[in-house]
Design brief:
about 425 residues; alpha+beta; conserved putative lor/sdh protein from methanococcus maripaludis s2 fold; Elongation Factor Tu (Ef-tu), domain 3; Helix Hairpins; 3 domains; 6-stranded antiparallel barrel; 4-stranded antiparallel sheet; 26 strands; about 15% helix; about 35% strand; rod-shaped
Length: about 425
């Protein structure tokens, strides 16, 4: 077992109502603190397909999900008006060429006549201006023709890169609005399907615990016992409104899969354990928590497996994302609910059998109440604790492996109220 491997919880009936009814043997354990949220698979690299001209879509050559190659024809637009304009512009260019030839001939004739004085210098200058205007008119017509030819080529919209068409936003008969327009529309989205990320909405409670590079485990509902490993690759600097509830602020964290896409097969799955906070609330506002008020612990025991996740992750898929905040082995540990917190909010005590030594935690523990810290043959003992996964506490000092600890006695029959600690 990963958690509390050497801690056997045993029930025992005491002679008195204040005698502890449960005990555990301290020993080695593997702490694992995991918060489960849900995330959405998204591609890392995407490119939007847009049109350079605004015309009706007459033909769609692909369907959503198709794999496409760079330069592959995706859409055709209506080109009737452009074809008509193309013919008109060809005529305009030829007309401008004739006008230029006529202007150049008139200028040459005048330049020959100026030598014998039959034409004035002013007349020659006028003809030069006429020729220059004809040149400009020809250039303008040629520019219009080139623009028209470019628009004609843009009525055939091709894939800008290799990839998968993960979104097709239009159908035949709809308008493709030019990207240069304020209302320009996206015709489709092409992504590299081999490079994926998972976007997770993390609540304000868990946000301070996030670190770049932090280990994350990703699984699917169809294969909950297998997962892919990943790491936190982006932590946003500010919160945003949740996509599922605009009144809730979350941090949209990005997780990338390991390059090796290592898969782990869990041999044992522990369900239904709440992920408690030190303040006892267990509350979360992040998207996709298993229940509305708490995170849940997920999987107590794990073993590496060579078997790969059979389900192919695709953009738009919803997956489970387990943030591993703590995963380490400890030498001495006891159940979380057998460690009591003192009134100072800092000191920790456990209950042991036997006479309390002088100077021990008499009367200082949270459960000591007004009975001097002694109930029959049991007393509280001060310990120093380390890490916790909210199921198990690491004990740094005050307890040895093999020692037996007991649940705090119920003092309600003697003091008129319960001990108030976790059981």
């Amino acid at each position: 077992m990963v958690a509390a491997t050497a801690m056997a919880l045993v029930g025992c009936k005491g002679k008195d109502s204040d005698t502890p009814t449960r005990h555990a043997v301290a020993g080695p354990a593997s702490l694992r603190d995991v918060a489960r949220l849900t995330g959405t698979v998204e591609p890392i690299d995407t490119i939007q397909v847009k049109s350079e001209v605004s015309y009706q879509i007459t033909k769609v050559h692909v369907k959503e999900g198709d794999y496409v190659k760079k330069g592959q024809l995706l859409f055709e637009l209506d080109r009737i008006q452009l074809d008509l304009k193309h013919q008109q512009l060809i005529v305009a260019v030829e007309t401008a060429k004739l006008s230029l030839r006529s202007a150049e001939r008139d200028l040459q004739r005048a330049q020959a006549q100026i030598k014998n004085g039959s034409v004035s210098a002013d007349h020659v200058q006028d003809l030069e201006i006429t020729r220059d205007k004809a040149k400009l008119a020809l250039q303008s017509s040629q520019i219009d023709l080139k623009s028209n030819e470019r628009d004609l080529s843009n009525t055939r919209i091709v894939a800008p890169r290799d990839g998968q068409l993960i979104r097709l936003s239009v159908t035949e008969g709809e308008m493709a609005v030019a990207a240069s327009s304020a209302s320009g529309n996206v015709l489709g989205v092409i992504a590299d399907p081999t490079r994926l990320k998972v976007v997770v909405e993390v609540s304000e409670l868990d946000f301070p615990r996030l670190k770049l590079g932090q280990k994350v485990e990703i699984s699917t509902e169809s294969q909950p016992d297998k997962l892919l490993e990943g790491n936190v690759s982006y932590i946003p600097p500010s919160a945003q409104a949740s996509t599922s509830n605009a009144s809730v602020m979350v941090f949209k964290v990005e997780v990338t899969l390991d390059a090796s896409a290592k898969s782990v097969d869990y041999a044992e799955v522990a369900g239904g354990m709440k992920h408690h906070r030190p303040d006892g609330t267990g509350k979360t506002e992040g998207k996709g928590s298993r229940d509305s008020t708490s995170h849940r612990h997920h999987r107590e025991a794990a073993s590496a497996s060579k078997e790969k996740l059979n389900t192919t992750l695709v953009p738009g898929m919803t997956v489970n994302v387990d943030f591993v905040f703590l995963e380490r082995k400890v030498e001495i540990a006891v159940p979380y609910d057998m460690v009591a917190t003192g009134s100072d909010g800092m000191s920790k005590t456990i209950w042991v059998r036997g006479k309390a030594p002088e100077g021990d935690a008499k009367g200082k523990g949270k459960h000591s109440g007004s009975m001097g810290g002694m109930f029959g043959n049991f007393h509280p003992k001060r310990v120093q604790v380390g890490s916790t996964d909210y199921k198990t506490y690491e004990i740094l000092s005050g307890l040895s492996a093999g020692d037996t600890v007991f649940a705090a006695p119920d003092t309600s029959s003697k003091s008129g109220k319960g001990h108030g600690g976790p059981m």
